[in-house]
Amino acid sequence: MTAATARPVTAATAADVAARLRQADAVTILCHVRPDPDTLGSGLALGQALATLGKSVEVAYPGDLQLPASMAALPGSDLLVAPAAVVGHPTAVSVDAATLGRLEGLADVFTAAPTRIVIDHHVSNTGFGTVDLIDPASDCTAALVLEIVDALDVDLTESIATCIYAGLVTDTGSFKWARPASFGIAARLLQAGVDGARWSRQLLDSHPFAWFRVVGEVLAHACLVESACGGAGLVYTTVPHELLSAMPWDESESLIDLVRTAREVEVAAVFKESEPGRWNVSLRSKDSIDVTTIARAFGGGGHVRAAGYSATGSAAEVTAALVALLD
Ligand SMILES: [Mn+2]
């Protein structure tokens, strides 16, 4: 299962984006729903850089979920405004969202802006702005934001560097699958004063005790389908709503990293019941299968080795649909 890589239809450079941002007096920066450290770090890093240049800045993400403490502690979080308080400036920037839909309730704010800048690294992103900086060769969106900060001639302060580091360390799984350029970027960020050990622990290696019970149940109920994917194998598990809601929402993000360690399989899936009957599905692969093709079959997207989609139905229904596609 290999898909042709979808390339952006328009391709801007960091210098192009910086030129547009220089012209703006006020900028609205939008992060994707259920923000992760890459989208939020990108938004806060860019927001701080633009504030340094004297611009009015607002940063927002859709939904009313409170940020987990680990991310709320990122420098620049004072730039965050609630969705209802978003002004919607004539220049809007989307960071790390693979589709307009990932901005959910704030998509209208984005489309209403005359100048719409998309900054992203998802291979499935075909571009939805008037200026699209989409680079699947970048390990994270935050690294693209660093290029823009440089193009704006803004000093790389410890605060800006910390936000970029947050995106880099999480999207590379603590540099486990980082490409060569990312190590150079990491060195520069640490030299700018980032406390790498603190942020790695805070963003990746810290869980509430309640997470242990969830992990125990989720792993105990995992299913192995060795015949799936032409014999490459699938492992999947479900996290029912009552279990998911027993822990902070961001804690479920790391479950897929445990499930995908199953040696017998190429593809891993975790079904998370965000609302009764509504599921967010995370997909991962190791070497040979492009999981964006699976995600796209269900209306989702993502990266070659990490993708996702949404589904509705009972646990039996949504898992059977995936198994039927792959087995
Ligand atoms: Mn990302």
TrEMBL record:
Q: Start and end of every DDH domain?
A: 27-167
InterPro entries from the UniProt entry: DDH_dom, DHH_sf, DHHA1_dom, Oligoribo/pAp-PDE_c-di-AMP_PDE
- UniProt superkingdom: Bacteria
Every DHHA1 domain range: 248-320
One Pfam entry name: DHH
Q: What is this protein called?
A: Bifunctional oligoribonuclease/PAP phosphatase NrnA
Classification from the root reads: Bacteria, Bacillati, Actinomycetota, Actinomycetes, Mycobacteriales
